[in-house]
Design brief:
Blueprint (H helix, E strand, L loop, with lengths): L6 H13 L3 H35 L4 E7 L6 H15 L7 E5 L15 H11 L5 E4 L1 H7 L14 H6 L4 E4 L11 E6 L4 H4 L9 E4 L6 H13 L1
Parallel strand pairs: 1-2, 1-3
Antiparallel strand pairs: 3-6, 4-5, 5-6
Length: about 230
């Protein structure tokens, strides 16, 4: 019958070992044998602090949440875009946030981005209704339509945007064994937009797709008006 674990006995044994070591060796020993517990403890503390902060401050509200995926632009350019767009819309950023993120790097055309933590973040933001739009190279945006997390521009709620930007549509071609095999519009080409020509978010080409659960299509329309029609 296995011996019952005793915390007091374990602590005495570990204390005896550590007391005979130098500080450097003691720290090395602790990390070597207990790193999983240390990281777990840090994670618990972080989650507790995060939860308390959210309870006190509340979940942030957004005017718009955009992800500029696979961009290596200088943060100063994103800040300038943020400020210029805020001035264009007149939105009070103290009331709600304008979130322009450049922290996603994935390509769905490569093994459907399996195991990519950035893609998992995209999924979480989309499914929660947080993300409004994502931009990336046109060759990457079309395959992303396969994920089902880009809005179909044939939907009624996209009628106005589809009609306005009909000559820019980017289509995803479903596989032959799919129920629906007709091409699906999942975004638009914005290679001539201010994202490229003025702010350098992308060096040459870019495309924009709307997150499938976005609750702020009017905000997406404002953003497109700013970068394409301003």
């Amino acid at each position: 019958m296995p011996k019952k674990f005793s915390f007091s006995e374990w602590w005495k044994e570990e204390h005896a070992k550590l007391s005979e070591m130098s500080l450097k060796n003691a720290l090395k020993y602790i990390w070597q044998y207990y790193w999983i517990f240390i990281l777990g403890f840090i994670g618990i503390v972080w989650f507790a602090v995060f939860s308390v902060h959210r309870l006190i401050v509340g979940t942030p509200e957004y005017w718009i949440y955009a992800s500029f995926a696979n961009s290596t632009v200088n943060p100063a350019s994103v800040s300038r875009l943020h400020d210029d767009f805020a001035a264009f819309t007149g939105w009070d950023t103290k009331e709600k946030r304008i979130e322009f993120s450049t922290n996603m790097y994935f390509d769905y055309s490569r093994n459907q981005a399996r195991g990519n933590e950035y893609y998992n973040s995209f999924v979480a933001l989309t499914d929660s209704g947080t993300l409004d739009l994502i931009t990336m190279d046109p060759s990457q945006l079309a395959p992303l339509g396969q994920s089902g997390r880009l809005m179909n521009w044939n939907f009624e709620e996209c009628d106005a945007l589809r009609e306005k930007y009909a000559d820019r549509l980017i289509w995803y071609q479903p596989p032959e064994d799919a129920e629906e095999t007709d091409p699906v519009p999942v975004g638009i080409d914005i290679s001539d937009s201010l994202l490229v020509t003025k702010y350098g978010i992308y060096p040459e080409s870019a495309a924009l797709g709307i997150a499938s659960e976005s609750p702020r299509l009017d905000a997406v329309g404002k953003f497109l008006e700013f970068i394409l029609d301003k």
